[in-house]
Amino acid sequence: MRELPTAREAALLIALSVKRKEGELGKDLVRNRISEKSLRRITGRRRLDQRFISDLNELLLDFNLLLIDTGEALGLLQASSVMGWPRITSNRIAAELEQARSGELNFRRIENELEESRTTPDEEQDSEE
User: Fold this and answer.
1) pLDDT, averaged in runs of 10, over the chain (129 residues)
2) Residue 104 counted as domain residue
C-alpha cells in the first residue's frame, strides 16, 4: 500500500507548482486558483478533511502561501499581499461590541443592515435597465 504525502510534502508540491507557473508566465502571482481535483491529486487523498487542510495551510505559510476555501473554489494567495489591503478595525462597531457585552445587541438589526447592502446580480441588472 502506498503512503499518502504528508501535509509538509503536499505543501512542497503545491509551492513547486506555483513557482513553476510563475516561471512560465515570467512574473510573481499574487493569487491562484486550484481545483479540488488537483488538490486531491497532489495530496493523494480522496477526501480532504479540515484538520489536514488546516495543517497544510500552516505549512504553506512557510512558502508565503495561504489556501482559501470559499466553498465553491479554492484559492492560493501570497500571504504577504494581505499587508497592502485596507485594514478593518473594531472601532467602527464599538457601540455594537458594548451592546453585545451587556447582552443588549439585536443581531437581527445587524442582519437587516447587511442584507440592505447586498444585491444579487439579477437585482444589479434590473437596476441598470
Assistant:
1) 87 96 95 92 91 94 93 90 91 95 94 84 56
2) yes
